[in-house]
Amino acid sequence: MHCRIIGAPVQDGTGRMGCEMGPSALRTAGLVAALSELGHTVSDLGAVAPRPVYQMVHGNPSLKALGEISAWTAALADAAYAASGDGMPIFLGGDHSMSAGTVSGVARRAAEMGRPLFVLWLDAHPDFHTLDTTTSGNLHGVPLAYATGQPGFEGYFPDIAAAVDPARVCALGIRSVDPAERVALARAGVTVHDMRTVDEHGIAPLLRAFLERVAAEDGLLHVSLDVDFLDPSIAPAVGTTVPGGATFREAHLVMEMLHDSGLVTSLDLVELNPFLDERGRTATLMVDLTASLMGRRIMDRPTRSY
To answer: Which is catalytic among the residues 140, 193, 252, 259?
Structure first.
């Protein structure tokens, strides 16, 4: 496969500094080498730069960096659309606000191809706030709502060329949901598997059912992997840690099943904050998970010393 690496060093969507170093940390942890060793062709396209920033006034006074995130969204949507025309784009973040651009960009490509886009959202949070409902004002909490065409973004974020059908979204690993998001998710019809559901049923049957839906509709699949999908005991380098996340083996199983499906066409790696990491362990884990998604088998896994 032709993997196209695109840096998205955005940190304006979160309340902590450091996510802009995420793309560099993933490269330093050996992402390109890991993909090349698996036989993939890799093109590193460098980093996206945001569009010019325009100051905006909104009725929600808690919003932070609205103009900046709008500018990033426009630039990343164009970059995602362009990269998805030739190979598999892998977007290195950066906070999760970047997915407003990456998802909307690949959705535009899918629409032009006449195929539905599905989204697997691996995260502790659904990120389904609108500009009106967020109380923190941190815009890494809105990208999935924007990409699925929820109301309230008009005039502030770029007009969306092709919204993702919320019924084609699966949010897996959820364990921190605000009341407004809970109502909006139910109304929109997003499939939500929180960690209680994972505990009761196991992660494999839940993911398998979703992948069967993607295959049945001949869909394209975008995967958005947030560091806080993982339990903080194995992935501390994120500013939004929530206990009780996916274990090492659960996370690798998800990636291995995604590879076996052959359905994944684009990938986000988001919310890595190297400033909060321990000797690069989270960056290394994210690279290893990407390698599993791209074909590394358990029998191929190298032994590491720290």
So the answer is: 140
User: CA separation (Å) from 228 to 82, 122, 232, 234?
Assistant: 28, 8, 7, 10
Q: Is 231 a catalytic residue?
A: no
Residue 14 lies in a domain: yes
Annotation marks residue 226 as catalytic = yes
Q: Which of 25, 16, 32, 11 is nearest to 94 (CA)?
A: 11
Does the active-site annotation cover 40?
Answer: no
Q: What CATH number is associated with residue 71? A: 3.40.800.10
Answer for the pair 42, 3: CB distance below 8 angstroms, yes or no: yes
The answer as to whether 306 is a domain residue is no
Task: Convert the pLDDT of each residue in 16-53 to its tens digit.
Answer: 999 999 999 999 999 999 999 999 999 999 999 999 99
CA distance 257 to 301: 16
Residue ranges making up the domain that contains 239: 2-300
Query: Average pLDDT of the chain?
Result: 96
**Of 12, 20, 95, 125, which residue is the catalytic one?**
125
Question: What does pTM read for this prediction?
Answer: 0.97
DSSP conformational letter for 161 = S
Distance CA 221, CA 38 (A): 21
Is residue 149 domain-resident?
yes
Is the torsion defined by CA of 268, 20, 272, 242 positive or negative?
negative
- Those residues of the chain that have pLDDT short of 50 are 306
The CA–CA distances, whole Å, from 247 to 220, 231, 270 equal 27, 6, 18
Give the gyration radius of the chain's Cα atoms: 18
CA-CA distance, 54 to 168, in Å (whole number)?
Answer: 33
